[in-house]
Amino acid sequence: MWSPFSYLVVNLARFIRPNEVTFSGVNSTLPMLACLLAKRAYDFDFTYLNVAGGVDPTPSHVPISSSDPVLAEGSTSIFDNEDFYDLCQRGGMDLCFLGAAQIDAAGQTNVSCIGDWHHPKVRLPGGGGGAVMLPTARRSVTWRTEHSRRTLVEHLDFVTASGGMHGVVTPIAVLVHDGQRLRLASRHPEVTVDEVLARTGFALDTGDVRPTVPPTEREAAALRELDPDGGFERDAGVSLR
Amino acid sequence: MSKLVPLAELAGRIADGDSVALGGSFLHRGPFAVVRELVRAGRRDLEIVKQSPGYDLDLLCRAGRVRRVRAGIVALEGNFGLAPWYRKAIESGAVELEEHACATLTAGLRAAAFGVPFQPVGGVHGSALAELNGWVALPDPYGSGESTWVIPKIRPDVAVIHVNEATEDGDARVFGTSHWDHIMTRAAAKVLVVAERVVPAEQFRARPELTLVPGFLVDAVAEVPRGAWPGSCWPDYPVDYDGVRDYLVDSADGFAAHLARGPETDRR
Which string of b and e fits B197-221 if b means at least 16 CB within 10 Å? Predict the structure, then answer.
């Protein structure tokens, strides 16, 4: 039912709520697909903004780059970078998809470096939207194509952005913030709770955790439509283990 | 008076050691012909200012022309991931980094555009970037009890943008999103414009509200068709992903060959 790829995209899309303003940014192919999927698979209205300035766009094709100007095609206006950042800061962004290299139990993120900031083992892309959007968006959701103790960590190497992720989607689990910390909301049906716990670097409250509800026909059809030849799935290169 | 100059002359208005704001975002509508020309001209010790640089900053780091970077997020994007030569330059300490969130960099540019020493920005609370950069949070002087982070002024010596159309007087307009070009051109001491096309001023007079930068703010304009290659300039052309792939081949010959493929070399 689920592929690791469809699990990520569809579960990101399921965070989108009716009549809200949702945003996808740079370096964000999976959230871009999730927003486009939600427009096709769900009956409710929502406003989809993206970093190409698009406002509810109808792109002629799905671009490889999630900041490609084709993502503004069909828009009746251009809502540029300054505009969507200002909107977020004044409290008008309901759901922001934001990248993260490391995430801690509080939902804080590191996108800056592995190792010491001044002498990094790996220099990562950096601040981006996080430090301003994570504390000011009403909810933020992130994703990792790998569920491991390297990415879901007890201690971040650097706190790039605080404020707390509302949701995290990995190929094996969906985590949701309960106001204090992230907890396990559902798990991939082929993965046990114990495996999720073993692959998570911080303690997770599991409670009564069910397998994630399988993709609906409309969700699956929308994803096929967005990725007819499986190019995005191949590029994402995501696996269960 | 015409401000139209050849690309080499336009690039010549950027000096060694200058702080240079580059327009566009990632692989889209960046002033990439100028960046390659700066390498050819031997420019050095540059400070690069851009919320979301990628190919441009990576190329300048690869050529060893960067002293300092003030940026929000650096990546090649479009499946290419991290910017490899930028990454090496930071990890080795060869280049100094002032890491921002995109919106804090914008706030610094806004301070310059507003003519004030600093500018408030929302968010930032809890981010280690604040301590790292020595940013300060000020209490609301009007008594709300809230505190707001303020970012010091960032005033580049020069902003360089790539646009779809310009007049020979330097008026410039873009199609699609303007990325951060608007604030960059208001914050910098000097503005340079590279255009896909130079068109008669009558076309701008017919729709003046579409003009992003009025000519009186612009120092010089150069016409370089396909100058944003290997990036896109919507709707004129998309990203040339093979061109980016070629750029990433790790050899001195490969780099020289990539520079030689720049569309701006056609007009010499």
Answer: ebbeeeebeeeeeebbbebebbbbb
What's the CATH number where B238 sits? 3.40.1080.10
Confirm whether B113 is domain-assigned: no
Judged against a pLDDT cut of 80, whether residue A207 lies above it is answered with no
Q: Which residues of A touch B126 (CB under 8 A)?
A: 108, 135, 159, 161-163
**Beta strands A139-143 and A167-169, pairing class:** parallel
Name every chain A residue with its beta carbon within 8 A of the beta carbon of B77.
26-27, 65-67
Q: How many domains does chain B have?
A: 1
Domain annotation covers residue B122: no
E-strand ranges in chain B read 19-22, 46-50, 66-71, 96-99, 118-121, 136-139, 147-152, 158-166, 172-173, 191-198, 220-223
Instruction: Give the one of B51, B90, B123 whose C-beta lies nearest to A133's C-beta.
Output: B123
Sign for the pseudo-dihedral over CA of A226, A220, A142, A167: positive
Alpha helices, H only, B70-208: 84-91, 102-114, 128-133, 181-187, 201-206
Does pLDDT of B159 surpass 90?
yes
**Pairing, β B96-99 against β B118-121:** unpaired
Distance CA B112, CA B239 (A): 32
Considering the entire predicted model, what is its pTM? 0.97
In contact, A11 and A148? CB cutoff 8 Å: no
Question: Is B174 an 8 Å CB contact of chain A?
Answer: no
Q: Which of A187, A162, A147, A171 is nearest to A106 (CA)?
A: A162
Residue B268 pLDDT more than 60? no
CA distance A178 to B236: 47
B168 within domain boundaries:
yes
Q: Does B71 touch chain A (CB under 8 A)?
A: yes
The per-residue pLDDT for range A162-200, each reduced to its tens digit, is 999 999 999 999 999 999 999 999 999 999 999 999 999
Angstrom distance (rounded) from CA B162 to CA B139: 40
What is the average pLDDT across A65-86?
96
CA distance B127 to A135: 9
Is B65 strand, coil or helix? Answer: coil
**CA pair distance A234, A224, nearest whole angstrom:** 13
Quote the CA–CA distance of B134 and B230 in Å, as a whole number: 37
Confidence of residue B267 (pLDDT cuts 50, 70, 90): low
**Which residue segments constitute the domains of chain A, with CATH numbers given?**
4-236 (3.40.1080.10)
Across the interface, whether the CB atoms of B239 and A121 are under 8 A apart is answered no
